[in-house]
Specification:
- The protein contains 15 helices and no strands.
- It is mainly α.
- It has one domain.
- It comes from Cucurbita maxima (Pumpkin).
Length: 396
Amino acid sequence: MGNNGELRLPFEDEKTMNVNPTNDTSSMNLDQPRRSLQTKPNYKRWLRIGVYTFLLLSGQSVGTMLGRLYFDKGGKSKWLATLVSLIGFPILLPLYMIKSPKISSSNITLQSNPPTTTKLIFVYVSLGLLVAINCFLYSVGLMYLHVSTFSLICASQLAFNALFSYFINSLVFTPFIVNSLVLLTISSSLLVFQSDPVSDTSSDGPGHPTSRAKFITGKVSCTVAASAGYGLVLSLTQLAFKKVIKKETFKAVLDMIIYLSIVSSSAILIGFFASGEWKTLKMEIDGFHLGKVSYKMTLFWTAISWQLFSVGSVGLIFDVSSLFSNAIGALGLPIVPVFAVIFFHDKMDGIKIVAMILAVWGFVSYGYQNYLDDLKSSSKVKNRDSNDVSRSSSLP
């Protein structure tokens, strides 16, 4: 993301620029290989980013919709809803068979000091526990809020991520980033004034004081807190890749997902049994409105969806930055509310429409800043290439 202060791990296209020039002093012969080397890695990198983006958006949208379906059709266990969003990591184990590309000699310094086992354990355990708490808070919010309201409030996580990135990842605030954060903050704040406090699964009426209390608890105390926690986890994950893990392989991405999932799943599993919700599990299955098979399939595909989301999210952190990963997540904002209106008959009133427009506007503002950063970065690479060619051609 250029010079906006975000962490960027070295990419393959940057590494290839360090290839020593041949003894041929012809500027044409030197310039042509450089262009071919630069074009191919850029293509691969953007293809990889495209795949990560698709996984993040599809996993996030489907996972959120299925999570709401679970509560809407009779599911009541917050711990189980959280557990299924984390415990699907075994499906990713076959991906370890994918061989990572060899690290070039120009990047030996990044690999020269591998992290100790103690440091890795501390990183995985601390981040895993944060993920567990964060996912539980999201489940509480999703249980009490309409899915469209829930999704729009989650847009605030981009603002929280930018704040944490400023202190943790040395993010530099530009006018477009500030504009994006202000718009997203206003978008989330508007939803406090909407009139549909809770979902239809609540036994209390919309005007009931208890119902309103659940709404405030589910939205402000849980969903916003979960958004802040998610922003913190992304920034810390980015910091861990740079300062501790120091690897540029797909295996590093998988390790981060798998080990965090093991820790967070274990913590939620303990909470599931400690809360006693497991005792009513059979009754919940029997009472699920869509039947036992649909109950199991809902949980199964929820688990799959969130694992796809994890691959996309961590992959974008690894390849670009935590703020970029979060911004792509904000791109999915218009998707979930529209699906919620279609499948769950959520009300799309004027406040929600305004909130959605502001959220999309905020993402576009951030996306334009990223476009400017890429242009500036590409200009610097071209200038460096021309200088290298000039120096090489001037050699005797």
